[in-house]
Amino acid sequence: MTRTARRQMHLAAHFPGVNSTTVWQDPRSGSQIDFSSFEHLARTAERGLFDFFFLAEGLRLREHKGRIHDLDVVGRPESITVLSALAAVTERLGLAATVNATFNEPYELARRLSSLDHLSGGRAAWNVVTSSDAFTGENFRRGGYLDRADRYTRAAEFVATARELWDSWTPCGRARPFAHDGRHFSVAGEFDVRRSPQGHPVVIQAGDSDEGREFAASAADVVFTRHGTLESGRAFYADVKRRLAAYGRGPDELKIMPGVTFVLGDTAAEAQERAAEIRRQQVSPQNAILALEQVWGRDLSGYDPDGPLPDVDPDPGGELAQGRVRIGDPLAIAAQWRALAEAKGLSIRETVIETSGRQSFVGTPQEVAARMAEFVTREAADGFILVPHLTPGGLDDFVDRVVPLLQERGAFRTEYSGTTLRGHLGLPVPVWNSGRP
Q1: Is 209 annotated as a binding residue?
Q2: Annotated binding residue at 360?
Q3: What is the pTM of this model?
Q4: Where does FMN bind (predicted)?
Q5: Which of 92, 181, 211, 414 has the most Cβ atoms closer than 10 angstroms to its Cβ?
C-alpha cells in the first residue's frame, strides 16, 4: 500500500446510549430504541462515507448497591436484528454488531452473521467481546462458569470455529461437512448458509490487555481501542502491529481505530466552553458519587457531590457493584485524586470530571480535522470510531463540517470505491480453506 493511501483514515459511527458519554437530559436527545434513531445515525454516517455503523451490547442491566442504576439505558434491541433492518435502508455502510463470545455458540452465531452479510451484500462485521463475571452469567444457562483466564482462549476458538463454518462451502457453491473438536467446542455437521459476499464478516476486537492485543494480532481485522492521546496511541499501534508478523500477517491486515469523541465550535474558546458544559452533563451529581464509590468500595451517598473528597480511605476489598472490575489500586487512586483536588481546590464532582474520560478532539472544524489527520499520519491510528454525545443527531455536525475538510486534505475518501466492508477497509478477502485462523 502506498504512503498516500495509508494516510487515508477510516471512520465509523458508534450509536450512543449504553455508556456515560451520552447526555440524555439534553432536549435534542431522542430515543435509544425507536428504529428512527438508528436509521438517522446510519444514514448520516453513510452520507459522510463512513466505513461502518457500530452497535454495542449489554447482556444485563447494571446494578449498584443491589439496585438497578437509575441512569442506565434499558430496552436496547438486539444488535443483529437492528442491523438487519438497517441493511434495507443503507447501501454501502458497514454494519457491525457486538456479540458476546462467552454466552453464544459458534454454529448459531456464524449463521446469523452470515445471514446479515448476505442481506447487506457483504457489509457485516462482528465485534467480539467476552465476559467472565457471574453476574452477567446468571442470565444464561451455564451462569458464571468461565474463569477469567479462559475468556480469550474461548473467544479465539470461537472465532476460529466460525471461520471454519464460513469456509465449509466450496468455491463452486456446495456445502462440505465440517468437524471441529477443541477445548471449548466440539461440533460437526453441515453449515446451511453459503459463503458470504465478502468471504467472512469482518471481525472487530476491543481489549487493551496483553492477552487482548495478542488475540487481536492473531484473529481480528479491526481493533477498537481506548487510546485517545497521540503518545499512547502511537505506543499501542506499534506494539499491536509488531505482533502481526508472528501470525504471517502484514501491517495493513489489521486496522486500529480508537473510540473518540469530539466537540466543535466556531472558535477554539467556544469549543472548549461547550466541552466543559458537556462534561458537567455527563458527570451528574449522582454519577459523580457512583464513580467515587467504585474507587472507595464504600457507601458514600451521604457525601455532597459539590463538597470535598472523603477523608476516609477506600476499602480495598469493597465491592458495591456486581459484574464490574475495579481497575487499579484504590488506595493509590484515592491518593492521586486527593492531591489533585487539593492542588486545584476541586469538589468531588469536579475531581471526577477532571480524572475521567474527556472529549478527544475539541476545537474548530479546521483544528479537529488537522489533529485527526495527524494521528493517522504519525501512526497513532488507522482511523476512528466516533462516539457522539447525542442520540441520534450527534454525528450531523461532524459530517457537515469536518468530513469536507478531511476530504480537502486528501485524508478521507470522496466516494465509496467498493460495495463490501472489507473493500472499504482495504482488507484482503479470506482465501477459501486457507487454514488461517
Answers
A1: yes
A2: no
A3: 0.90
A4: 98, 152, 209
A5: 92
